[in-house]
Amino acid sequence: MTTYGDCTFCCATVEEKRIEYDYRRKGNLLIVSNVPAGVCRQCGESYFTPEVLKKMDQLYHDIFDRHQKPERVISVPAVSL
Ligand SMILES: [Zn+2]
Fold first, then answer.
1. Which residue of 3, 23, 42, 49 has the lowest C-beta tally within 10 Å?
2. pTM score, two decimals?
3. What would the CATH number be for the domain defined by 14-64?
4. 3-state DSSP percent of the chain in helix, strand and coil, to 5
């Protein structure tokens, strides 16, 4: 169990959850499921431990730089205003 401390935006309690996170970088988007994160009960802001951030960064490089096959590929609708 990781302690995340209180939310830096609204000071409410942050609780540990598993979330789906949209990891965006350099115009790429990687959807990561089952990510352990601290989520603020009030405003929903999410917090990650350095280990989790490092793991997501590794996965990003595996897929976009080292061209490893992801578990699944989904298509996402895109629009402009
Ligand atoms: Zn908050």
1. 3
2. 0.84
3. 3.10.20.860
4. 20, 35, 50
Give distance in angstroms: CA of 15 to centre of ligand 1: 11
Q: Say how many Å lie between the CA of residue 9 and the centre of ligand 1.
A: 5
pLDDT, tens digit only, all 81 positions of the chain: 688 999 999 999 999 999 999 999 999 999 999 999 999 999 999 999 999 999 999 999 999 999 999 999 999 999 999
Cα of 78 vs centre of ligand 1, distance in Å, is 29
Which DSSP string corresponds to 4-28? Answer: --S-TTT---EEEEEEEEEEEETTE
Cα-to-centroid distance, 38 and ligand 1 (Å) = 10
Write the DSSP symbol of residue 29. Answer: E
